[in-house]
Amino acid sequence: MSILTKKRKEGTHVAKHAAQTAAPKTGKKGKRVPLAVKVAGGLVALLLVALCGFTYLYPNVFPGVTVGSIPVGGMTRGAAAEQIMEESKPLYQDAKLSLTIYETTYDIPVRDVLESVDGEQSVDNAYAVGRTGNPFARMWDVIKAAVGMNEAQIAAQVDEDGLTKALEEIVSEALTEPVEPTWEIGTDTMTVYAGKPGVQFDTDAVRALLEDKIRLMDFEPYEVSTELTDAPAIDIDKIAEAVIGEPVSATVSKEDGKTIIPEKTGVQFDVEEARSIIGDGSAKSYTIPITTTAAKVTAEDLKTKLFQDTLAQTSTSLDESNTARTNNVRLAAASINDTILNPGDEFSYNGVVGERTEARGYKPAGAYVNGQVVDEFGGGVCQPSSTLYMAVLRADLEVTERHNHSFTVAYTPLGEDATVDYGNLDFRFKNNTDYPIKILAEQTNGKMIMTIVGTKTSDKTVDTRTEVLETYTPQTVEKKDSSMMVGQTRVETTPITGYSTRTYKVITENGKTTEVLANTSNYVKRDKVVYVGTKQPTPAAPQTPSGGETAASGSTGETTTGETADTASDTQAAS
Questions:
Q1: Residue 254: closest CA among 384, 347, 333, 332
Q2: Tens digits of per-residue pLDDT, 179-197?
């Protein structure tokens, strides 16, 4: 070995020795802890001891703790309670609880379901921060509070009545059975909306959830778990049946005569095309092409024109001294008064007036029965029907059933009467105008008055003209009566002349006059029946003349009043 190499080795040894000599003793492993580390460790230990002591000995709510967003750190329990009660109201005054049930969200104002903040429980929640768990958990909570990372739960009391009311309103709307498809009519298209499924959910569970959220002042939105029942499929044939139709004008309620029932637009569409558009029905809505026709009379139009014109008014005379007959006329008129017919409606006299019975207040009065005038309940009710017929002719309404009397009556012109017999003969007509009509019926001052009000759409006026086709002159039939003296007579049946007639409506409109056949009537004649006495007078005993002329034997019998008076009386008294 060379000297140089040896020196190098010796130098290395010397260096190692020097290093070993300089290094402090650190125990068996040969290392020593730096003084700074010792100092730091000591400080940490002191801090832990101090923090632990603070954690276990601090009497108030720990610094930095908040109840919700309300700072209560460092406060006594009493002061914290006052702070919470003072500053909590703005936290819920405008807040809301949002529940989503199926596709709808319901908002409940918190102020309606929260009775008050529970200050005592809220303070307990704040005071509990840093006072539960092992020492290290407690100290960690204290540290987090100090840096604003520990928020205690604010507590509240539930307004049970307010919650019940709010929940009932939601349940009444959200808890549903399956809903049928609906549709909406536009000008050129119809939108068909798919049906909605039935929605069911546990209302008790929802209430319990809401109570917890209110107590914890937890106003985060919540979605309710629901069970759905499939929505009904779209039935285009059913929709077509309901939608397709001709336009219907606005009408008026027959109950009050004021409420306007809106018009209905006429709608047509191709059912097969609609079926193709809808297909499997998986979409929420569909647009179907349609053709619409507007109604003649809209609700707005009807509001300004309802019952504004008198279409016709007629009157006939009656003898009010015949109280039974007048009673019957008044009862019938009262039943008819204020009757409303919307366009297309049909009036039935028997249907409106009803059966003429004693129980309904009708009295026996003269009526034609088998060619004779006899008393029967409701006698006289043909005068209101005939007076109404006269008005119907002049209003140019469509008559669907009318019968003339067997004999002429005195209170109407020929061809303008209308007899009725409950269960047998009726008087019926339709409102063939574009607007509602109303019948006003009144018996007063010896008159039976009928007025038809409605809406005029032109300057049309209607009068009547009756032509006599044939006259049936009554004969006088004499019958012998042995109970009466020779020369005496008694009229059993008054004569009535018969006629065959045609009655026309004379219509003038826009300066042009036309005639339309209204009816043909046939009134039979009634012969005059006179009983003639055949009993011979008993011969008188001879007497000596005492001067002067001899008295004539026998005497003539009484005669009735003239035929015209009898006939008028008979026909006036009859139905």
A1: 347
A2: 999 999 999 999 999 999 9
Cβ partners under 8 Å of residue 279, min gap 6: none
Give the model confidence (pLDDT) of 462-487 as tens digits.
999 999 999 999 999 999 999 999 99
Which residues, other chains included, contact 23 with Cβ-Cβ below 8 Å and sequence gap of 6+?
Answer: 30
Sort residue 332 into left (φ over 0), alpha (ψ -120 to 50) or beta: alpha
Tokens for 321, please give them: 């001294």
188 and 290 in contact (C-beta within 8 Å)?
A: yes
Confidence of residue 371 (pLDDT cuts 50, 70, 90): low
Place of tokens 């049909």: 346
Task: Give me the DSSP letters along 38-98.
Answer: HHHHHHHHHHHHHHHHHHHH--SPPTT-EETTEE-TT--HHHHHHHHHHHSHHHHTT-EEE
pTM equals 0.62
Query: What is the rounded CA–CA span in Å between residue 502 and residue 517?
Result: 7
Of 430, 431, 432, 399, the residue nearest 417 (C-alpha): 399
| Cα atoms in the 13 Å half-sphere on the side-chain side of 185 | 17
Lookup: tokens for 515: 């005639």
Nearest CA-CA partner of 257 in 387, 440, 398, 432: 440
Confidence of residue 372 (pLDDT cuts 50, 70, 90): low
CB 73 within 8 A of CB 195: no
When the pLDDT of each residue in the chain is averaged and rounded to a whole number, the result is 87
The answer to whether 196 and 156 are in contact (CB under 8 A) is: no
At residue 106's C-alpha, the angle toward residues 212 and 194, to 5°, is: 135
